[in-house]
């Protein structure tokens, strides 16, 4: 009996492997052919009832998502609101502390519980250069057997641009953002997760520099590195120039969920080494800004959003990007 079971398991593994290797494998900039094949085999094993087209799309999405990861070399920085000129020009920020005594600078974000400067030391990690695309998030939901959200609205011709597949994914709750990243990790065997709040800020500030806006030059160039305030809808990802680290849309368009629970006093008790946020809470943290806001006020690198982790529906402007919690290059 045990011999027959072992033979059946072996045959299944061989057939699954052959089927996975028979489908066209996407090319990867970072992964070896063997790693791509292993991902393909896991996709075949996990989703035998999905169509071949869907399985190929899942495989391509996982490989592309890993290729899109930017390696962020760790280091130490002073996290929190480091201050700005009381009268400043967002189009020409200059270099902090702008020739002033840092103690005489004004807060960047009043009343956001980010004004307690504290030292943070981070290990190296990876962060996606892009926010998760709506089409990739749709594919994830399909793999779980879930219907597309707002399916009826998507049929309307006048709303096609609203649901453009290259726009940032809409989320209803924090958990589905978390689950998407874990899904990538399950299929790739890399420790994929949401970034921590500290990791997000460190990357937005070009590895912890005193940068007020997470753009290519630290200033706001409307229409060049960020959308103008008159824009009333999300734009497709990577519409504007990236930061010096190669990260897109860290300012404007949509916010990013991060992994942390929120506490207004957390900065005062945060550990120095790789802080992960409070152990418990009732609200989660979002970072960045979205298309509904005035960018000169909100699109900075230090502002924190405390938000309910569950919304009434999927909403544009509330998105996420994944990270790989590993200090080793892919």
From TrEMBL:
InterPro entries: CTDL_fold, Sulfatase_Mod_Factor_Kinase, SUMF_dom, SUMF_sf. Residues 1-22 form the signal peptide. One of its GO terms (molecular function) is formylglycine-generating oxidase activity. Keywords: Signal. SUPFAM superfamilies: C-type lectin-like. This is Formylglycine-generating enzyme, required for sulfatase activity, contains SUMF1/FGE domain. Pfam families: FGE-sulfatase. The keyword Signal applies. Residues 66-312 form the Sulfatase-modifying factor enzyme-like domain. PANTHER family: FORMYLGLYCINE-GENERATING ENZYME, SULFATASE MODIFYING FACTOR 1, 2. PROSITE patterns: PROKAR_LIPOPROTEIN (PS51257). The keyword Calcium does not apply.
């Amino acid at each position: 009996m045990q011999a027959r079971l072992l033979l059946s398991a072996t045959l299944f593994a061989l057939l699954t492997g052959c089927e996975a290797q028979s489908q066209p494998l996407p090319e990867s900039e970072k992964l070896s052919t063997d790693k791509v094949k292993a991902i393909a085999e896991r996709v075949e094993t996990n989703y035998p009832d999905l169509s071949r087209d869907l399985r190929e799309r899942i495989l391509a999405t996982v490989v592309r998502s890993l290729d899109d990861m930017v390696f962020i070399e760790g280091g130490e920085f002073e996290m929190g609101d480091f201050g700005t000129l009381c009268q400043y020009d967002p189009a020409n920020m200059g270099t902090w502390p702008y020739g002033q005594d840092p103690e005489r600078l004004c807060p960047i974000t009043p009343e956001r519980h980010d004004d307690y400067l504290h030292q943070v030391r981070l290990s190296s990690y990876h962060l996606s250069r892009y926010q998760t695309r709506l089409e990739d998030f749709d594919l994830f939901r399909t793999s779980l057997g879930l219907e597309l959200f707002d399916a009826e609205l998507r049929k309307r011709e006048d709303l096609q641009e609203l649901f453009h597949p290259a726009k940032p994914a809409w989320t209803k709750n924090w958990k589905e953002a978390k689950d998407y990243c874990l899904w990538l990790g399950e299929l790739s065997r890399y420790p994929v997760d949401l970034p921590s709040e500290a990791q997000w800020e460190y990357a937005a500030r070009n590895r912890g520099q005193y940068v007020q806006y997470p753009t290519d030059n630290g200033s706001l160039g409307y229409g060049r590195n960020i959308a103008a305030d008159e824009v009333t809808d999300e734009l497709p990802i990577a519409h504007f120039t990236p930061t010096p680290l190669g990260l897109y849309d860290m300012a404007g368009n949509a916010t990013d969920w991060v992994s942390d629970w929120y506490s207004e006093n957390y900065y005062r008790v945060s550990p120095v080494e790789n802080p992960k946020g409070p152990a418990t809470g009732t609200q989660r943290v979002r970072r960045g800004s979205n298309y509904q806001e005035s960018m000169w006020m909100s699109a900075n690198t230090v502002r924190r959003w405390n938000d309910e982790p569950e919304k009434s529906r999927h909403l544009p402007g509330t998105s996420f990007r994944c990270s790989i919690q590993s200090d080793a290059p892919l």
